[in-house]
Design a protein that fits this description.
Mean pLDDT: 82
Distance between the termini: 99 Å
Strand order of the largest sheet: 3-2-1-4
Low-confidence stretches: none
Structural class: alpha+beta
Order of helices and strands: HEHHEHEEHHEHEE
Oligomer: single chain
Strand content: 5-15%
Shape: elongated
Helix content: 25-40%
Radius of gyration: 27 Å
Largest sheet: 4 strands, antiparallel
Amino acid sequence: MAKPRISGTTRFAVVVLALIVGLFFIIQNAFAAPKKFSPVIKYRISQTATQMAITGDLKYYGFVKYEPALNFALFIKRGIKGKDIQRSSIYEMSQSINTWQIADILLNNGVSIDCSRGCPESNFDPELLPGGDLAPTIEQKYEWVATYEDCTKAIGHDGGQLSSEQYYERTGIRKCVSPDGREFTQGKEGWSDQPSS
């Protein structure tokens, strides 16, 4: 018995169909949410931010998988609604929503903020690490501080303070306030969450 032959046209149709299906899944993946579950994050956009900076931030911090996909979604949605990304605004978004939803939020859901007295340093609240993981809180960062000596080592970029020499001369007590706000007394175990005045 002879094998049935597949014609050249049928082969071509199968290859084209496979390419179309593959392309569909690639495009769908480009617009998909980067994570299944993630908390809501507040994203602050400054008055001077460009669209390139905004889309770059959202890619760098894990809100979108593919920056050109976000640019395309913004282009399409902007054309439909005639809107632009509001600057000096805060947006609530998550890494578990897709690129189309992010574009919709950027074009429609900004809450204006007044930075006349200064804005926070970070664009994200809570703060994020590159790639999109949550940065440790100040409490988590300094949970290792358990003694006065640890406290003196922790003082630095995040804050913290030692009592003055005048205070020591007057009271005979040395105190240290850690960057997370706990107060330690030299020679005593533990700490107080309420610094003394």
